[in-house]
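User: Hi! I'm a student and our assignment asks us to look at how structure tokens line up with a sequence. Could you show me two examples?

Assistant: Happy to help. In each example below, the sequence comes first and the structure tokens follow. Example one:
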Amino acid sequence: MIRVFLVWFLLSTTASAQVVVFASASLKEPVDRIAAEFPDVTVSYAASGTLARQVTQGAPADVILLAHIDWMNYLRDGGFVQPQTVADFASNSLVMISPSGGDDIALTGSAIADVLGQGRIATGLTSAVPAGIYAKEALIHLGLWDTFADHLAEVDNVRAALALVARGQAPIGIVYATDARVSDAVQIIATFPTNSHAPIRYTGALTAQGGDSGAAFLNMIAAAQGQMVFSEAGFLPPVPH
């Protein structure tokens, strides 16, 4: 299935675009704005783990923008990105959401259980999707993992988790603060402490095949104009490390 997709992707994108950008699903709004300034750029969105694996299998990306440093390290260690181009460009906060109309809650087992009822907590796959990985770390840190691990609805990217809550199919979701901004159908009911999970680092790089046009796009993201776009979308500056 993945090989079929990659063949289709290669045939359908390289003919129409000189630069192909792979980006984490949570980056859609700001990256779309920046890409609009480049007539030769096409962007493909998915979970960071999915994109990283596709690059290792030969997908024709020139730039990759990921939401978890482990996936970028995976690509760097395998020689799939140009190591000197790897750099952080933004960060984010992790939040708990509900359909609009709910009340703020404390991040305690009883408070979450009251809102959850017989439903499930929507989030990314806790073994692969960055939002899910951060969610698991936060729940473990707060002593809530054992209580709610069996009550998760794990999906293949953070926007899918957002959609479950927006449609009322899940009473609670764990997503990024920027995701909550893009839907009027949800609201933030709690924000996870920053020390409850690893810093949410967005990292970009040129792939091994990326050239000057890809570098120009990557440079725009790091430049003042690109950083303003991310700020206006609610993203935070890169985390010092």
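Example two works the same way, sequence first and then tokens:
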Amino acid sequence: MNEAALDRIAAALERLRPAPAEAPNWDAASAFVWHAEPDHLEPVQDVNRVPLQLLLGIDRARDTLMANTRQFAEGLPANNALLWGARGMGKSSLVKAIHGALEADYTGLKLVEIQREDLPSIGRLLALLRGADVRVILYCDDLSFSHDDQHYKSLKAVLDGGVSGRPGNVVFYATSNRRHLMPRDMIENERGSAINPSEAVEEKVSLSDRFGLWLGFHACDQDAYLTMIRGYCDAYGVEISDAELRAEAVEWQATRGSRSGRVAWQYFTDLAGRRGVAMG
């Protein structure tokens, strides 16, 4: 093969390799979204979140995650956290709300969201964050894996794995509907069909064990559901009697076939609109 052909191959490989991401202007925003190919951090000026005081019925998870995040913001040891459980009970809202509650006191505390499909690029993101003069909550929403999914291998780099390990200025928070990040029937199927059942799923199940904090979120009962809505009404100045609120809110949840913090917020949004109250 002649020299010209080798030069063309080298040039083609260079084009395929993602260009190194430029260090962002950390003063541009308190939150960023990571995008891969081309690698860059996009500043988010207006974070989609609700105030921490409006997240009701999850007091234990709120207090635990707040304490862990405050430790991290102060440069003290802190754990990676997995927020798992019922849909619509405030897992992702809690992560964003806690960052919002602390960012005024700790201006160097940044929130960086990475999408699940971009996990293979997490090594490049960690290289960019390593040594930055900020402390970063790296956040992935709705994290889970299927039986043929290899993305979980990329995640081990941030969960204390690899030679370089997790940068000291980064903590990882993830939300999932699954405690072990994979479907229960998949765990049982692989255990039942494997030559060595314990090894068949150990690699994936052990991923969830690498989180120092497991915070469970469970479906709310009707009283908690109504308390959430009353809290929204009080916070935004929507006047409605307890009897009317109860009748409407119960009917609303019946039409949705579920009861959760998300459903409570959806009912309140409808109520505020009907009452002519602006929310934002």
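Here is something you could point out in your write-up. The beta strands are 31-35, 40-44, 81-85, 109-114, 135-140, 170-176, 213-217.
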